[in-house]
Amino acid sequence: MSKSIGWDDRLSVTATDKNLVGHAGAVLLRKCADKAGLTSGLNAVIPRGEGPGWWDRGTVLTSLAVSIALGATSVSDIDLLAHQAPVFGDPPSDSTVRRCLTGLDLVTLGKIGKARAKARRRVWDLIAGRAGGFPWLLVAGKLLHGWIVIDLDATLITAHSDKQGAAVTFKKGFGFHPLGAWCANTAESLAMLLREGNAGSNTVSDHIRVLADAIDQIPARYRRKILIRVDGAGATHDFLEHLHAMNTAFRTVRFTVGWTITDTDETALAELPVDAWTDSLRQDGEATATAGVAELTGLDTRAEKWLPGLRLIARRTRPAARHRKNLTALERATGWRYAIVATNITRMRGVPGSHHPQWLDALHRSHATVEDRVRTNKAMGLRNLPSKSWTVNQGWVLAANIAADLTAWTRLLGLHDQPDLLHAEPETLRYRLLHLPATLSTHARQRTLKIAETWPWTNAFILCWQRLNALPAPT
Q1: Alpha-carbon span 175 to 181, nearest angstrom
Q2: What is the pTM for the complete model shown?
Q3: Are strands 179-183 and 188-193 parallel, antiparallel or unpaired?
Q4: Which of 7, 60, 291, 464 is paired with 43 by a 20 to 30 Å CA distance?
């Protein structure tokens, strides 16, 4: 008989719930949340109802975040955790989750922010103490030791029905326009502001608020050297002045922002001598002639009117076919497409060669990784907001941010030496670890969760569990 047929001989399919656990990887995420002190911290700050059957609201929020990491796209998907009932007990109902999110007022959200910051401080201390230490960023061959890099970016979330705050976006869609901040070192989601769909891309107050919330999430001893990167939406007088004013005797703040090119800038670009252009750098530090970089500071009078010491770094590339219809007269004449970055970096302490225009160009271009953060966050709950209520959706965004943090912490604390899992995206992580089936056995008052020995990532799963289990209990 051919091996390709007959596989279903004497095969039947039935259903049972005896000792079966679905999505067993949830134990990794929940263990990480508990060991970080996040679950207990949230329970301490979110008001709990009175009477029998009431859930600790912090546990509910953590459970929702775990279900989002597993793939939940609506409040009712909390039922995903029913697969883990033999391990965790019955999950909260969707009505309990909804009541929890509805009760998250501004005061409570502020307390949750402090609880998250406390847990993050503990996690960063644990990360710094593991093999390899804290993940400092590597850009174009240079290690940014001691620098915390914050990337700001906005995104659009489509609404498929009428919801509070949904509006026509600048791209003529319909939905929301949240603004977020991510830590490039750890891939954590530090802060996110849910905004109406017609919110402006360069609203200064929103950028200042999100940045302040993000810095509040960073442990105090890591705030001495901060690099902030944002695209052209951040190139406003007020925001750059705010960033400049953040520098103190105890804190150094550097930034790179996209720069909208005007006629004045094009005049300065046209005046650049041919030998001013040098080859740009790839992210591995190698030079490439496919793009050029030049210092525009001094030729461009706009910079002098913005901030003292502001530098402009110009970049030129050959235009792709999709760009040709939007080229300016200068770009058509020269055959190059231009972009400019504004920065206050004259040097970055501890980073040799950080004053070179080529390296600064590479530094800002690595900001593009924030698009990966946006994409992965959308794969974990942000692709669609599930409720008509603004308050519930605001709570959902918070839970999605916590889900992003839990997956980042689990990778950094339990999988830091597993190259195929350390940077795994949500779908990969779900396939390899989170969605594994298991059986639960009990013997001598001990419970054992058993996963398939032949699964390629079984050892990684067990190693991650052992590492998380070995972490000291939160105080």
Answers
A1: 20
A2: 0.93
A3: antiparallel
A4: 464
